[in-house]
Amino acid sequence: MPRSKWNRKRKAEAKLSKSGKDHKDKDAANDAGYKLNQDYSVAKQSNPKMEAYYSLVGLHNTSKRGDGTFQECASDEAKTLERERFMSSLRSILPASFRIDRSLDTRMQHKLIEEMKEFVGKEIEIEIELPKRSEAVGGMKTLLDKSPNSNDETKEEVIKRKIAPAKPIPFLSSNNNDKATKVVLGYQLSVDRRTLRRNPSLTPLHEWMKIHTDCGHLTRQETVSMIPPVVLDAKPGMSVLDMCAAPGSKTCQLVEVVGGMNHHRDDEVNDNGEEGMKYHEPKGYVVANDADPKRAYMLVTQLRRLQSPNVFVTSCDGQYFPILDEKKDKGTVREGMFDRVLCDVPCSGDGTVRKNPGIWRHWNQNGALALHPLQLSIALRGARVTNVGGYLVYSTCSMNPMENESVVAELLRITNGSLVLEDPRPRMEGLVARPGWNSWKVLREHNSKAKKDHKKKNSAKMNAKRKEWQEKRHKAGGGDSKELGDDAAGDKEEEKFERSPYYTLPYVGPETWDEETLRERTTSLGFVEYATYGDVEPEWRRRVRVSCFPPTEAEAKAFELHKCLRCLPHDMDTGGFFVALFKKVKPLSPDATARMHQMARESRGGIEVDAHLNSNGDKKDDTEAASNTGVVKDEGCVVKAEPSEEQTDDEPNVLNETEAQVKEEEDDGDAIQKAPTGRIGINHNKKKKENGDLGNEDFIPLDDSIWPPIIEEFGISSDFPKEQYMARASGEAKVLYFIAKSIKEQIIDRGIQNRVTVINSGLKAFERCSIAESRNKYRISQEAIQFVLPYMTKRVIVACADDFYKCCAKGFMEFGIYSQEFQDKIGELAPGSFVVLLNGQEKDTTKKMFLVMWKRSNALECFVSKVEMDGMVSKLRALGFDAPEPEPAASNTEDAEEEKVDT
Ligand SMILES: C[S@@+](CC[C@H](N)C(=O)[O-])C[C@H]1O[C@@H](n2cnc3c(N)ncnc32)[C@H](O)[C@@H]1O
User: Fold this and answer.
1) Which residues pair with 70 in a beta bridge?
2) Are strands 386-396 and 338-344 parallel, antiparallel or unpaired?
3) Where is the composition biased (Basic and acidic residues) (predicted)?
4) What's the Cα-to-Cα distance from 577 to each of 401, 567, 571, rounded to whole Å?
5) CA distances from 599 to 378, 379, 401, 589 (A)
6) Cis? peptide before 886, omega within 30° of 0
């Protein structure tokens, strides 16, 4: 079990023993995915409803051929085999994967790839510890608690296997179309992170990964999560919107492509034709949005590593993402604001069950149905803000057609020719993805009230079935499930007989794949199936919408849904994922735009609904909202949109508070109020200010009076782009930010700040400090140094590698440790902020081998973070400088490593 999870488990146990009140806390711990006094691996790895649903809708009807193509399963045996492969993959722990930063210096990239060769292809024997009790257990908590198997199967099994520790992910390669020089940047390990950490044979790989992750050269990211940005095919210089961006792994991938410094080298001549330092600021930019401001701040933490000025982080409900004034092209208005839009929408997340075992417990078909309109509404808005000629990617980590193909089909239906589906497979070398479905079944679950009636009606039949089933299991030697069920239930007498015979422990797959038998199973588990929308009861029509139904034959032919990518866990040993790529070929029609507004009004606000409505549909207070555990989980992107059963009885609640906040956008761009964020009633500005963190105030131009002392102190040249420096407070602001020109002109100057909550943008360029003997009140900041340095004519020193290396340290450094030449140079400086450049790299801003230092009367201090310093030292080594090897990593870095976001 990962250490952080152990810690949480220990805390839950401590709380339990302290309070002595058993049941409530035990349930709380169980809800959080832990089972007190038992190993975590006993987490429920079966859910009868989920398994029966996917069997009926045909998830196991296709299998993979040896050559990576797919075929229909011709026999029941083939389907059974396919289901078993699928289920055993879901029950195994997800292997770790990572990617090398695309915007990294190419020499550094090659060095890392060369080092990776030691771990790819060559097989080594490693011991793999199987989790205690890897057997799957069924979906009922009460049964599980009393399972006779639950206490004794605690033996750890260790097996030996010969494996290559890592394999390349070919579709994640450098931005190079030339096959000869193209390099693979993504790698998937053969083991999960726990095995990687604990297995001595893998220590060299683990150590290597730790060092380079700390230096920001590697990012751990799930293999399937790397797919959407590659499918989006963003290019340097493009404008990109990531509509649902937190926690931000895909945003980072996009920023590395469109805003990475690596693509913009030009250090030969300056504007006057003279040799000198010059940079080309990346033109591309990413607007990263998330409805939940707290998660948007997580995004900022992730992005900080990239230090790119080309990102603008906002928080608003994606359904209301502002449509700013549109660009004029030869006199006519061109629809759209972004070349590429990613809608990685909130979803039920059943594709992430390998890393979020709590999904086994919470899976619920009505949750997927509830998310469908929100997903559609976000995707429609995404389509509206995509430039004509641009691309939109819709993705989920769900396997459910209600969240996938049905959304895609309705999007194509509404946009009526403005969007066309494209098949990204030809560009995705090595990707194994099944075709999207052209048809599917529509099912919902009973709500509690309906379920009771249904149970009453069927109880005799149920009882008979149940007995028959138990006898079968008994004969097959599968344990006395009757005894188990009856003992364990501990429930009211009547409920005991109402349970479906298929609600067993563990759930057993169907023997026959005859559709009627599969249907009988789902019906017995409380599902209702509809052949057409006309069959949907009026009171269910807002949950089971007409758009949930499959396309007609003619539509299916036109839509070509097979072009969508369906990634199943057992095909590439990954999580489950769905991706659709659309090209926008013409503006949306007025009808489509009207539908977009209507959808936003009708659909619920995703996280808002869960966080702010209690089970009666009333607004919760903030405390209650904050403690809503299952809403948006920090470990990933799973949004539990399923309301409680009482809520299901009611119709889905339309969020009137949200609607009231937004002036109806009858005319695009007319709404002047800010789009709603995900948490109503929390004053994030205030909260952030109290924490002393970045406020989310708007960016404003600087007071002119700020500049003269700075210009004088650092000898800033006259072509310095002052208009690109902004603050988040008037007067002598604490921080002066460098904002990318493209963000300034395309986003800020077009008034986005009036329409959304601004979370973050830009890089810190100057920070306020007090220097007694100087008129200047600002020091230089390391974050934006590469953008300030080309204009500095004073307080810049070039150092040899040895002196540069000595500067890379924490604390005060006495002058005497440096070479005489360096000492002479610092001797000429007055106390205060200055910059040290590495000799030979001083004209190359892309490598950023610059250190912001501070001179005191008798010592120097380096104002660079430890992470960045470590990165520089390893860059020094990659560039061939003789820097000492790193010290062995401290043991507590494992904890820190665990806490990092990995989606
Ligand atoms: C699937 S996750 C995104 C994962 C992210 N793309 C990544 O790669 O790290 C979905 C995100 O959508 C956000 N969200 C939920 N409802 C939303 C809405 N109405 N508009 C925008 N974002 C929303 C959630 O807060 C969550 O962070």
Assistant:
1) 64
2) parallel
3) 13-29, 480-495
4) 12, 5, 11
5) 9, 11, 19, 15
6) no
Task: Kindly report the three-state secondary structure assignment for every residue of 255-301.
Answer: HHHHCCHHHCCCCCECCCCCECCCCCCCCCEEEEECCCHHHHHHHHH
> Which pTM value belongs to this model?
0.80
Ligand 1: does its nearest atom lie under 6 Å from the Cβ of 172?
Answer: no
> Under a CB-based contact definition with an 8 Å cutoff, are residues 653 and 613 in contact?
yes
The residue whose C-alpha atom lies closest to atom 17 belonging to ligand 1 is: 291
Q: Is 587 in the pocket of ligand 1 (CB under 6 A)?
A: no
Structure-block tokens of residue 506: 């563990």
**Omega within 30 of 0 (cis) for the link into 506:** yes
Tell me how far apart the alpha carbons of residues 6 and 575 are, in angstroms, rounded to a whole number: 23
What confidence tens digit (pLDDT) does each residue in 274-329 have? Answer: 455 556 688 899 999 999 999 999 999 999 888 899 999 999 999 999 998 776 66
How far apart are alpha carbons 629 and 615 in whole angstroms?
Answer: 14
Report the alpha-carbon distance of residue 600 to residue 134 in Å, rounded: 44
The C-alpha atoms of residue 386 and residue 686 are separated, in whole angstroms, by: 34
The length of the chain, given as a count of residues: 903
Our mutation pick for probing the ligand 1 site, out of 241, 311, 345, 661, counting the most ligand atoms within 8 A of Cβ, is 345
pLDDT in tens, 784-830: 999 999 999 999 999 999 999 999 988 899 999 999 999 999 999 99
Predicted local confidence at residue 462, as pLDDT = 66
Residues with Cβ within 8 Å of residue 485, at least 6 apart in sequence:
143, 470, 496, 499, 504, 505
With a cut of 90, say whether residue 410 has pLDDT above it: yes
Annotated binding site: which residue ranges?
244-250, 290, 317, 344
**Alpha-carbon gap, residue 851 to 225, rounded angstroms:** 35
Long-range Cβ contacts of 554-557 (<8 Å, 24+ apart): 555/409, 555/413, 556/438, 556/439
Cα 605 to ligand 1 centre (Å): 11
Closest C-alpha to 412, from 643, 662, 580, 273: 580
Q: Determine the distance separating the centroid of ligand 1 and the alpha carbon of 380, expressed in angstroms.
A: 15
* C-beta of 637 in contact with ligand 1 (< 6 A): yes
- The two tokens of residue 225 are 């999560």
**825-846 pLDDT per residue, tens:** 999 999 999 999 998 877 777 7
Rounded to whole angstroms, how far apart are CA atoms 747 and 699?
A: 11
Ligand 1 pocket: which of 219, 232, 244, 302 to mutate (most atoms within 8 A of CB): 244
Per the residue annotation, which of 347, 397, 567, 807 is the catalytic one? 397
How many Å apart are CA 763 and CA 312, to the nearest integer? Answer: 11
State the angle between helix axes of 48-57 and 515-524 in degrees (0 to 180), rounded to the nearest 10.
Answer: 150
pLDDT value of residue 389: 96
Residue 754 phi, psi (nearest 5)? -80, -10
Ligand 1 pocket check for 291: Cβ under 6 Å: yes
pLDDT value at residue 327: 64
What residues does each domain of the chain span? 1-31
Please say if 316 is a catalytic residue.
no
Which helix (H) or strand (E) covers residue 391, if one does? strand 386-396
Q: What distances in angstroms separate CA 579 from CA 228, 266, 344, 565, one per listed residue?
A: 7, 37, 9, 5
User: pLDDT by residue (tens digit) across 7-66?
Assistant: 555 555 455 445 444 444 344 434 433 333 333 344 468 899 999 999 999 999 999 988
Choose one of 607, 609, 633 to mutate for the ligand 1 pocket test, by most ligand atoms within 8 angstroms of C-beta: 607
